[in-house]
Specification:
A hairpin with a 6-residue loop joins strand 4 and strand 5. The chain has one helix and eleven strands, in the order βββββββββαββ. By secondary structure, it is mainly β.
């Protein structure tokens, strides 16, 4: 059974930084993608960033490019999202997600979801 457990959300002022962590377990095979979606109140869910467990390739949405960095620790099966230069519009519940195919994640067809962690950026 695939499990995704997030940690690291919180409250930060605009311009500040936070790091999210996602401990992933239960995958079969070595090629899958883990990353983050977010959903703000009254807005659609948005795919933020994903990373491949195979070659480490990454994907970022235009809204976070240059500010967020995704990385992974394969030994610990943990994915990190370093969020810098945070803006009030980054306020959302951030969900760790996973799927075997990047195109599924980009299209929003996510196989596995974590429970979510709140990120609040004050102005």
């Amino acid at each position: 059974e695939v499990q995704l457990v997030e940690s690291g959300g919180g409250l930060v002022q605009a311009g500040g930084s936070l790091r999210l962590s996602c401990a992933a377990s239960g995958f079969t095979g070595n090629d899958y993608y883990v990353g983050w979606f977010r959903q703000a109140p009254g807005k659609e869910r948005e795919g933020v960033s994903f990373i491949s467990s195979g070659d480490g390739s990454t994907y970022y949405s235009d809204s976070v490019k240059g500010r967020f960095t995704i990385s992974s620790d394969s030994a610990e099966n943990t994915v990190f999202l370093q969020m810098n230069s945070l803006k009030p519009e980054d306020t959302a519940v951030y969900y760790c997600v996973a799927d075997h195919f990047l195109e599924n994640l980009v299209a929003g067809y996510v196989a596995y979801w974590g429970q979510g962690t709140q990120v609040t950026v004050s102005s």
